[in-house]
Amino acid sequence: MDEEEFHLYNQEREISIGYMVFDGFAPLDVFGPLQFISGISADFNMSLSIISKKAGPISTYVPLHNIDDGMPMKETISASVIATHSVNDAPSLNLLIVPVSDIRYGGIGNRARFMGNDTWIENFVASRFNATDFVASVCTGAMSLAKAGVLDGKRATTNKLAWSQVIPFGNNVTWVPNARWTHDDKIWTSSGVAAGMDMTYALLRWLYGDERVNVTMNAVEYAPHVDPHWDPFSVVHNVPGADHAHSLKDLVGPVGYDN
Amino acid sequence: MDEEEFHLYNQEREISIGYMVFDGFAPLDVFGPLQFISGISADFNMSLSIISKKAGPISTYVPLHNIDDGMPMKETISASVIATHSVNDAPSLNLLIVPVSDIRYGGIGNRARFMGNDTWIENFVASRFNATDFVASVCTGAMSLAKAGVLDGKRATTNKLAWSQVIPFGNNVTWVPNARWTHDDKIWTSSGVAAGMDMTYALLRWLYGDERVNVTMNAVEYAPHVDPHWDPFSVVHNVPGADHAHSLKDLVGPVGYDN
């Protein structure tokens, strides 16, 4: 079907969304995208499952830890969201979204403190991948997708501070250093935390077209980055292949206005 | 004390933060600011209370409703956060933050469906105001501050889509039409939803200085708007006094970099 038919198809069907959460998740990874998605859900049919290993409260809490250079960091303040489903009882999903799989200041190294060798996130992604229409990651959620094998042969990106810790995973993944987000076949990936909002705007436009999505963006006063190649944080965090030839800044404004 | 002394004073004390939530709250109003605040809490001493009328799960759910022009809207998908404290057992607070007091598509008119004549938010703000160091609102949370009387004689702003519905409240409030956020004495207010993140960046720099705050911003890859007068949404939403003479767009990038 063509683009317009695809928009109508999505506007008329129900899209079942699953958002994975786990202890130490980054709140903006989840609730930035969900702000836009829940806004659009007032226009089009969606359902949402918040999925964790077990249903119930899941906290953003990060304990005392060292960052990757050994600097000691305090435990953080935190909030808890309620997981509505466990991986065992989650419904059929059209869109599965996987947020950061590490800790804001702790880097990937601290992930083991939370997850140990537990691969329930990767197992769930791998088991559900074929039955989903699309899978999206925010920040280092891409590491979970890579470990699950669903990035093999695909283009992907991730948080640029955690770049070197994420890109060893997966087989034949084309990790794109200059990307606010990527879209390759069923796979959407974003760069760090806040980039998930820009990916979500692009994803929602791709699904539903501009009209209602733009109304939502301007109601919540978010000026998105719309160039998927804008990525100053690859320069800030010294990612190999970072594009130093362009300005680090981006001209953003309300969507639908030229000047 | 001077600016540097003020930063040291805040870096060395514990800051008790209270975030109010209630049914139908906008998730990005809460979790955008909290992403930055919780990041900084790994550096400096903070505590966080999520406060509602009663402790327990509070949902972002918005039921079937009409927007202000009468257009019918669907119920939304939703997530629930756990309120850790009720208004009756919340601890002493240095910083109290009040998010949107209306509904994303429903406008202020729908607020009554949720709140009726219940003024527990305003009562709490009024009762705690003198004992706090600062009070901040995100989006139409400014309406709650105005109703509580704490904006009287102050400069403030709010969501520009909801502008005409908010500014009747309060006495002798200077409502600033071209403002991403305002800071007047103890009062910080932001424009719509996403603007809360930019206000929070400004507030955190003001409290703690640039260094650790900028590390956090670049780790989560958020490029903040740093001009409090940048406000294209006042033009988009036809706010009286909107500045039509300037570009609607803003040049943003990673903090701490000039080019």
Task: Write up this protein.
Two copies of one chain form a homodimer. Chain A has a single domain (about 5-235), classed as Class I glutamine amidotransferase (GATase) domain (Rossmann fold), CATH 3.40.50.880. The two termini of chain A are about 35 Å apart. Chain A has nine helices and 14 strands. In chain A, the strands form four sheets. A seven-stranded mixed sheet of chain A has the order 7-2-1-8-9-13-12, sandwiched between helices. Chain A has helices at about 5-10, 25-40, 110-115, 120-130, 140-150, 165, 195-210, 210-220, 230-235, and strands at about 15-20, 45-50, 55-60, 65, 70-75, 80-85, 85, 95-100, 135, 155, 175, 180-185, 185-190, 250. Chain A is globular, with a radius of gyration of 18 Å. At the A-B interface, helix 2, strand 2, strand 6, helix 8 and helix 9 of A face helix 2, strand 2, strand 6, helix 8 and helix 9 of B.
